[in-house]
Write a structure and sequence with these properties.
Length: 836
């Protein structure tokens, strides 16, 4: 353990002092990340290995009394000093001399505050940068339990303390003139995690050269556990840093492993630009810009995990320019760096002018300005866009922020504050006739124009609901008491769609009674009383009994043939069966992808649905979808493999399967093409009723799973997919007749519809082997599903194959339910034919 101090109040001049020379072995030197070969251009890459900063060692400093260590990071501007190159090197005597001055002045500042003086331990200067000189430091306090809040609040008003100090008349003439003081408590995760390794790197980029940083071991091995790393990045004065991630693949849980990017050279929380973890698809740009010529990237990991890490290019670019005069009938403009992240501390101003006699209509296509600390619906206190004197912030659905001017000019302001950045906006303006702003269309209250037929159809097309107010509902709709109309298929699904429960009235049983799976009503008192009151055993489920449960159609059967009453116990991470068999064969249903927001459209990210397969008829292209259930087996729809006079769809030789495909026609390196060995349509498939619409396909050879090719979990026969739950359909939009509408794999969120409600809507054409789902979001008449493709149902961190796209409108058009083959009904058949 490194003990750097022994309680006396002492000023340290540089961070070096935190490292007793005798203890070097403890933190053995680690080779830096393999920058070998991969560096593009020549970079000045000073790899200052390990254990440099005080931050690293703070952690090892502990005491046995009840005082708690509190760490603050801060920066301040020194205006009466000029920056010299030697300040970049913390070993230089110039650095040490100025650092000594800074720490002694910090001590003097803290000594003026009664809350701080008592508990102050010491400070270290971490770095300097230009402007005139900005100093970055860490300060440590030993705070008795219960006093943390008072120290935090004293620290947060440190700028005032400094101002007061600066105004003193009898100030020593050689003292530093300070301004722009920021400080905040260090991210507590850094102090609560027992890191066993610390590394620090610094890089000063050169003009026209691209450097690279990456996690240790990338791309050949996983990043190391229990490690804290920071990269201090610098650019020349009057330049900013551009950090461009090409890979970002960490553990999903940010409380364990994370990357944080700061607009600073120390980890000041008030300058944090973003925190990231999980997987970010390379198909979406991930670029950050600093406001000045410095940036800090930190990465922390906890216990051993097997994730590749990250790699990013670093370069210097001229400061962002934005705003200006926009003329003409129409045009578009975006926030800086769109569709990637805008820089912090940015202000842009646009003046739009359209021809005389018109008004300006401005529509935001993408609008992503959300950040922690900014609540929805409150005044925009952080980043915002201002139009017509109104401020907008947060995340808004596509096209729902629209403003119209009174005259032929409009001013638009974009502001980003010091912390947290987002992807920003893409806006378009056009000249409109002020008297008729929505020719032949309906004008929403938010001034958006929508097709007239979208008025009163139960869908919020305006974004502010104004198209769904004061409606007279059509007979096929639910008339909510509050005046809204909703599609009938949302009736009795347990979700309050009206907002006033109208759609959930007269469903199931009266209050005090519970609804059984077979729709019988029994008293609540009969739940879990050991007696089957429902008649199907559904009142005796999920009662926490793991043994001695009578087997029924609704109970899960373990491998040892004993039944348990837990609903959906498979692969939920908890062994429910005595023999643990409910957690066997669980390498399924997971994608590396951490669902991130979609910038425009309903495209999936590459690898988001790795079980999705594209079935091509040789020479004719994509025809149907399918799902991977094992290295050699796919599930699809039986109607995809029925012969017609022209094509022998039932023959394996007709088909080729594309696995890991994201974009049709783009057979990237992740894509695997396979021929088929066998096609097995369900023997009871009925081409008139679409009953038993399921088929299996065997690949000619097994595939190796990858980030882009993985199986989906097959549900047990008892798996419950209740009405009202949200599931996903995916596909390239192929209709039964073939051909595809989209190049990029599409996704749509759908909701499972109450079976009896759907059967009524579909004029009693459903069999018990079908289930219904309706589209929840997405555009009008979007066709996202493919025949044969998966209906993926999230459960915990996995997806289960709830259904196979069958008929009705597999395309999931709004106001038309899609019909899916219920996979649970075929679990035994799948097992019999494939062994899976
Ligand atoms: C600072 O000095 C130490 C010991 O003399 C050396 O190991 C280290 O590489 C130096 N760092 C820099 C940035 O020059
Ligand atoms: C912004 O949206 C317009 C269409 O509204 C599109 O043409 C343009 O390419 C988009 N700009 C960016 C940078 O994505
Ligand atoms: C489905 O709707 C019917 C009424 O149409 C209702 O009786 C039944 O309880 C609903 N089922 C579920 C699971 O909510
Ligand atoms: Ca911000």
């Amino acid at each position: 353990i490194l003990c750097h101090i022994s309680g006396q109040d002492k000023d340290w001049d540089t961070n070096i002092q935190f490292l007793p020379a005798s203890d070097n072995k403890k933190l053995e030197k680690k080779k830096g990340p393999g920058i070998v070969g991969a560096v593009i251009g020549v970079v000045i890459f000073a790899a200052v290995i390990a254990l440099m900063t005080g931050l690293l060692v703070w952690h090892f400093h502990f005491r046995n009394d009840v005082r708690l260590k509190r760490m603050y990071s801060g920066s301040m501007r020194i205006t009466n000093q000029g920056f010299i190159d030697a300040y970049e090197n913390s070993n230089s005597s110039e650095f040490k001399a100025l650092a000594r001055q800074v720490t002694s002045q910090l001590k003097s500042i803290y000594s003026k505050s009664p809350q701080l003086a008592k508990y102050y331990v010491g400070s270290t200067v971490q770095a300097f940068s230009e402007g005139s000189v900005i100093s970055y430091y860490l300060s440590e306090f030993d705070v008795p339990q219960g006093q943390e809040a008072s120290v935090d609040s004293a620290m947060s008003s440190m700028d005032k303390l400094v101002d007061k100090e600066q105004r003193r008349v009898a100030r020593p003439s050689n003292s530093l003139v300070l301004e722009d003081v920021r400080s905040s408590a260090l991210d507590t995760r850094l102090l609560s995690t027992p890191f066993s390794r610390y590394m620090q790197f610094s890089m000063h980029t050169k003009p026209n050269e691209i450097g690279q940083i990456q996690s240790p071991g990338f791309p050949n091995s996983a990043y190391p556990p229990n490690t804290f790393i920071q990269w201090q990045l610098r650019a020349d004065p009057k330049h900013i840093i551009k950090l461009d991630f090409d890979t970002m693949n960490l553990e999903e849980d940010c409380s364990n492993d994370f990357i944080k990017i700061y607009d600073s050279l120390v980890a000041i929380e008030s300058s944090v630009m973003d925190e990231m973890c999980g997987y970010h698809s390379p198909s979406q740009p991930l670029t950050f810009l600093s406001s000045g010529n410095v940036m800090l990237v930190t990465m922390a990991s906890d216990k051993e995990n097997d994730y590749p890490g990250f790699r990013a290019k670093v370069s210097q670019v001229p400061p962002v320019t934005c705003g200006g005069n926009l003329m003409g009938e129409k045009g578009t403009f975006t926030s800086p760096n769109f569709p990637s992240y805008y820089p912090p501390r940015n202000l842009c101003q646009w003046s739009i002018q359209v021809p005389n006699g018109n008004a300006v209509k401005l529509t935001f296509k993408t609008f992503l300005l959300s950040e922690p600390g900014q609540k929805d619906g409150e005044d925009c206190l952080k980043d915002y866009v201002q139009v017509n004197g109104k401020k907008f912030c947060g995340e808004k659905p596509e096209g729902t922020v629209t403003e119209t001017s009174q005259t032929n000019t409009m001013e638009v302001v974009f502001f980003s504050d010091a912390s947290y950045v987002d992807r920003g906006f893409n806006a378009s303006y056009e000249a409109i006739n002020a008297k008729d702003p929505c020719p032949k269309q309906f004008q929403c209250r938010n001034q958006r124009c929508i097709k007239t037929e979208l008025q009163c159809d139960g869908w919020n097309d305006c974004g502010d609901m104004s198209d769904e107010l004061d409606c007279k509902c059509k007979p096929q709709d639910i008339s909510c008491k509050n005046g809204l109309c909703k599609p009938m298929f949302w009736k009795c699904d347990g979700v309050d769609d009206c907002g006033d429960q109208t759609d959930e009235l007269n469903c199931g049983c009266k209050s005090g009674l519970v609804t059984c799976k077979n729709n019988e009503c029994v008293s609540e008192k009969h739940l879990c009383d050991g007696i089957d009151n429902c008649g199907d055993g559904s009142d005796e489920l999920n009662c926490g009994r793991s043994t001695g449960v009578l087997c029924s159609d609704l109970t899960y059967k373990c491998k040892n043939n004993k039944c348990i009453d837990t609903v959906n116990p498979e692969c939920d991470g908890t062994p429910d069966c005595e023999d643990g068999s409910d957690e066997e064969n669980c390498d399924c249903g997971r994608s590396l992808f951490k669902t991130s927001r979609i910038v425009g459209g309903e495209n999936t990210q590459d690898g988001e649905f790795p079980w999705q397969v594209s079935l091509h008829v040789k020479g004719a292209g994509h025809v149907c979808g399918a799902s991977i259930i094992s290295p050699q087996w796919l599930v699809t729809a039986a109607h995809c493999v029925q012969d017609d006079p022209r094509t022998r769809y039932s023959q394996p030789g007709t088909w080729e399967a594309y696995l890991g495909l994201h974009i049709q026609g783009n057979t990237a390196k992740n894509v695997v093409k396979r021929n088929l060995k066998q096609v097995i349509a369900h023997p009871n498939y009925n081409a008139y009723t679409y009953d038993n619409d399921i088929a299996l396909m065997e690949l000619d050879s097994p595939v190796t799973y990858s980030d882009y090719i993985r199986p989906i979990c097959l549900p047990s026969p008892q798996h419950d997919f209740p009405a009202g739950s949200t599931v996903w359909i995916t596909g390239w939009g192929a209709t039964r007749e073939g051909g595809f509408a989209a190049k990029v794999l599409q996704k749509a969120e759908v909701r499972i519809i109450n079976y009896s409600v759907c059967n009524d809507l579909m004029k009693a054409q459903l069999t018990s082997r079908m289930l219904c789902a309706g589209v929840l979001t997405g555009g009008v008449d979007a066709c996202q599903g493919d025949s044969g493709g998966p209906l993926s149902s999230p459960s915990g961190s996995r997806m289960f194959l709830a259904g196979v796209v069958s008929w009705g409108d597999g395309c999931a058009r709004r106001n038309k339910p899609g019909i899916y083959t219920t996979v649970t009904k075929f679990r035994g058949w799948v097992k019999e034919k494939t062994g899976v």
